[in-house]
Amino acid sequence: MSNRPFALASDGETIAELRELYRAAEARAARLRLLSASGRELAEADTASLEAVIQRCAERLAWFTGSGSAFVMSADNAEGIAIRAPGPGGAVIAKLAIPGLDGLEAIPDPEDREAFRMQLEMMGSTIDRIERERERAELLRALQERERRLALLLEKVFTAQEEERRRVSHELHDGVAQTATALVRLLERAESAGLAAGPAPKEIARSLVAELRRVIAGLRPTLLDDLGLAAALQSLGDGLEQEGFEVRLALGDADARLGPLTETALFRVAQEAVSNIHKHAGGPCRVTIEARLGDDPVVLRIADQGRGPSSATRDHGAFSGHNVGIDVMRERMAALGGTVDWRGEAGHGVSVEARLPRGAPG
């Protein structure tokens, strides 16, 4: 057996191949590090950090190609490598300038060129994503501002309506009602002196005063302003009882006070419901007035067990345009973010249920 050292065939070629493989592995590792580091930062980028993240990615590309610096410029710049939005024919949304590199074709290694291109695509996708997020955020801010302005306008409209009702109420009370009351007094004196003639003018005047007081209370009940919705609902129930209706009141959290617009809207629904009872019940019957003023949403329900609405009202009452009172209730509640559910059945009366978020405007 020979004592000569064992030697592989073509030792020089094998070592060169190993070195070449090592360099290729290092190059691949460098590409992976480039794409991994940049990909992670780009995925986490947001509006505040976008500019800094894109600049760091540009600098990595500069180091990757052997340059010492890089600059990201606006899309309308005449020079630089295009950074495009994703998709076929994506628009140029920025330019990348690296000294000594005029374009991708100047990168000799095809794998390096592909890694460079992939990073440009990731940068373009991120810029496009953030721009879209900015547009959505701006649109959302505009919509929120519009909603805020609409809420303010709505509050002004409702406030103006209620102020006008309050003004008319005061004028009727301080003017016409006082005059009618004085007329009653004069007629009472005339009657006591035996001067009255005709069909009981004193009773006619008293009826006029009662009607005026009913109209005044309907325009703007002072109980609503002074004591809140629960007291105003109690007053509506008392009025029905005086007319012979059997009323069951269930007012949860009666001491809870809501915003003036919310209380007014719910009270107007209750008024319309009571008006419907007078129209469709066919006379005194059982009536339930329920309110859960501490819940969210606030719930008001008024139901009667009277004769019920006519077939035409029953068929179309749930649809807009067929019942002005129901439409008004729904519009008022919808303007505040609430709903009104109207149900009528022959022989079983009408049920009206209103729901309104506690956080509604007003």
Automatic annotation (TrEMBL):
In short, the EC number is 2.7.13.3
Q: Which residues form a coiled coil?
A: 120-163
Q: List the Gene3D superfamilies hit by this protein, alphabetically.
A: 1.20.5.1930, 3.30.450.40, Histidine kinase-like ATPase, C-terminal domain
Which GO CC annotations does the UniProt entry carry?
Answer: membrane
Q: What is this protein called?
A: histidine kinase
- In its keyword annotation, does this UniProt entry include Glycoprotein? no
Enzyme kind, highest EC tier: transferase
Its recorded reaction(s) are: ATP + protein L-histidine = ADP + protein N-phospho-L-histidine
Alphabetically, the GO molecular function entries are: ATP binding; phosphorelay sensor kinase activity; protein dimerization activity
* Histidine kinase domain boundaries: 167-360
Classification via CDD domains: HATPase_UhpB-NarQ-NarX-like
Q: Which PROSITE patterns match?
A: HIS_KIN
Which Pfam families does this one have? HATPase_c, HisKA_3
Give the domain of life: Bacteria
Sorted alphabetically, the keyword list is: ATP-binding, Coiled coil, Kinase, Nucleotide-binding, Phosphoprotein, Transferase, Two-component regulatory system
